[in-house]
Specification:
single chain; about 250 residues; alpha/beta; nine-stranded mixed beta sheet; 11 helices; 9 strands; about 40% helix; globular; disordered N terminus
Length: about 250
């Protein structure tokens, strides 16, 4: 990793990063679905360059709101849809957008316990009705999967039944922690968040008719400091994208 990063920093792909041009502290706001790979990259980047990066993870919508409210923020990773909408409305100006990768929405269960079959809409419906406790991220906080799940249970005709036994979590990280702690029987979130928390919890993606694929993109101001540009180059490099599947993310293309 250090060799790869050194080559990136030394190449013409990015600005040279030296001690006298490093920002005192970079801030990156990101959707929780990329938490594990971004944390690893930030740790490696700091060891190699000395550049400290403060990472803030939340739902896709909340991460973007926090980024917009922070004048010192340097980088944003959230859904491509949110970034595109904000660019069109001029909430995000004078920046560049680069695709990071895709994630799929799905379900998780308590590790070590039998997992339900959710391969069809009818089997998903049966699984949701049978589960005593369900947790998903709060749609009002900009949770991509939470918003989608509300549409799914409405289409299945079981919205009232599910919401009676559902807990709304602040984000996907808390959603997964609840099912891992045995406080919920089924969790609805991104597959990347499930795999990063515990691969043994994976139940599977939504059935084909309810498939949810979200593309994550990185947005950065064109006048961002050299350290931010170097880290952005690392995140979107071919070498790092190739590792995304390890974390439940699908590389672009």
């Amino acid at each position: 990793m250090k060799k790869c990063l050194s080559l990136l920093l030394a190449s013409g792909l990015t600005l040279a990063v030296s001690a006298n041009v490093l920002a005192a502290d970079l801030k990156l706001y990101a959707a929780a679905g990329v938490k594990s790979p971004v944390e690893r990259m930030a740790a490696d980047f700091e060891k190699t360059t000395g550049q400290k990066i403060t990472l803030v993870f939340d739902t896709a919508g909340a991460a973007q709101q926090k980024f917009l409210a922070d004048p010192d923020a340097g980088l944003l990773i959230t859904t491509a849809t949110l970034i595109s909408t904000s660019v069109k409305s001029d909430k995000l100006k004078n920046g560049t957008t680069t695709i990071v990768g895709d994630t799929i929405g799905g379900l998780a269960g308590i590790p070590g316990q039998p997992k339900p079959d959710i391969s069809t809409s009818e089997k998903l419906k049966a699984a949701l009705l049978a589960a005593p406790r369900i947790v998903f991220s709060d749609p009002s906080r900009g949770a991509t999967v939470g918003t989608h799940f509300m549409k799914v249970i409405e289409a299945l005709g079981i919205k009232d039944e599910v919401l009676k036994k559902a807990t709304l979590a602040p984000d996907g990280i808390v959603t997964m922690q609840m099912v891992l702690d045995g406080k919920a029987d089924l969790a609805v979130t991104q597959l990347s968040e499930i795999i990063q928390a515990n691969p043994d919890a994976l139940v599977g993606p939504f059935p084909k008719e309810f498939e949810l694929a979200s593309t994550y993109s990185l947005w950065m101001h064109k006048d961002a400091p050299a350290g931010a540009k170097a880290f952005a180059t690392l995140i979107t490099s071919a070498a790092e994208r190739a590792k995304l599947q390890t974390y439940g993310l699908r590389p672009p293309g």
